[in-house]
Amino acid sequence: MDLSNSSKIPREEGMDHTLTLAREGYMYISNRRHSFNSDIFETRLFGKKAICMGGKEATEVFYDNDKFKRKGATPKRVVQSFFGKNSVQTLDGADHKHRKDMLMSVMSPDGIQKLTDIVKQQWDQVIDQWEQMDKVILYEEMQELMCRIACQWAGVPLQEEEVKKRANDLAALFESAATVGPAYWAGRNARNNVNKWIGELISGVRNGEVNPPENTILYIFAWHRDLEGNLLDTETSAIEVINILRPVVAISIFNNFLTLAVHHYPEEKKKLGSGEEKYAEMFIQEVRRFYPFFPFIAGLVKKDFTWNGYNFNEGTLTLLDVYGSNHDPEIWENPNLFNPERFAEWDGSPFGFIPQGGGDYWMGHRCAGEWATIEVMKVSLDYLASRMDYEIPDQDLSFSMVSMPSIPHSKIVIKNVKRRIV
């Protein structure tokens, strides 16, 4: 049965609501879930019939690999600038699992420990630099810091004089994905730049001109073979290396919100000062839940099915409300309050808390770098809350719920940075 004829699913009237989505940003799906009093509704987006849904049950069905697929779901313009053509996020089935295994292989305990050691080393160095600066524009500096960390971890050679350019290009991949006009084309140009940069390194590894250690991401991805035993083409290998570098640089967004939370909730800073690792992790999880990061995730119905009386037709575009699910009062008590204590007894559900996607890491499309993100944020929080002193002068610390991604408007300016002796 055609979904548009279903009397059981609320339907948003109108020819197309893509511009409305752009105007409402993170709140588009949540606003309609509230007005329809339903966790699911039908609309038209990007010129197509679309289903939007959110909440724990909706997340669980969305991450059922028998019901939804990712290939073809994300608009081509976003794939080209953000994920990259033929990346793991565009695959399904055995091909996806094989490629995902490659990505997950670097998320081993040893790999994560290596990453955290690098993060500490780089934070120690950057504080020395910040102490000499009249003011620090945190978001910009954080992008460069995370770029150094990402490249060192991945085994990607990076000269100091190229840090700013590489950081700007990697940041443009996620800053431009939801834009139009010149900003979008700047992102596409950045994609071409980073593809060329990493592609040349992949070729260099394969012809012996570049020799990263064998346990590094650059080496592993350069020599990865597909299910048929063939090396990935140079561009695809480069894109998957970039799919490690880009998310690490994107942690600059979370780290800005960490700084904002430490500033806005001084009573929490006192608790963090106790040095209790459990509380620090609760604080980080609440930052990831509370502040905007991913607005939604797209999928396509794999084959006709019925769920909760709703008919889903093969090929229908479906958006999962990520931000709204993390603020769903059916899942979270007082969801619009910042309260790290809510994670003291959290059950660890892969469907109730989805700041970087839901479901299973190995078999599904949940972000492979989520573990790494949390560990990088732990080290960063320790420095921001306990290992340095700084002032936050008057500035516009508000952030947009429309711009995607969202960051504080001032990018958080700090000054008088001093290392704290601990």
| Beta-strand proportion | 5-15%
Superfamily (CATH H level) name: Cytochrome P450
Shape designation = globular
CATH architecture group name = Orthogonal Bundle
The helix fraction, in percent, is 40-55%
How confident is the prediction overall: mean pLDDT? 88
First-residue to last-residue Cα separation: 66 Å
Give the topology string: H per helix, E per strand: HHEEHEHHHEHHHHHHHEEEEHHEE
What's the CATH topology name? Cytochrome p450
**Largest sheet report:** 5 strands, mixed
Number of E-type strands: 10
Structural class: alpha+beta
Task: Give the strand line-up of the largest sheet.
Answer: 1-2-8-5-3
User: Stretches where pLDDT falls below 50 for ≥5 residues?
Assistant: 1-7, 361-366
> How many domains make up the 3D coordinates?
1
Number of helices: 15
Rg on CA atoms, Å: 21 Å
Topology record:
Layout: H1 18-24, H2 28-36, E1 40-45, E2 48-53, H3 56-62, E3 68-69, H4 76-83, H5 93-105, H6 109-131, E4 136-137, H7 138-154, H8 163-175, H9 182-207, H10 217-222, H11 234-264, H12 266-272, H13 277-290, E5 296-301, E6 305-307, E7 310-312, E8 317-321, H14 322-325, H15 370-387, E9 388-391, E10 413-419
Parallel strand pairs: 2-8
Antiparallel strand pairs: 1-2, 3-5, 4-10, 5-8, 6-7, 9-10
Helix pairs in contact: 6-7, 6-15, 7-8, 7-11, 8-9, 8-11, 9-11, 11-15, 13-15
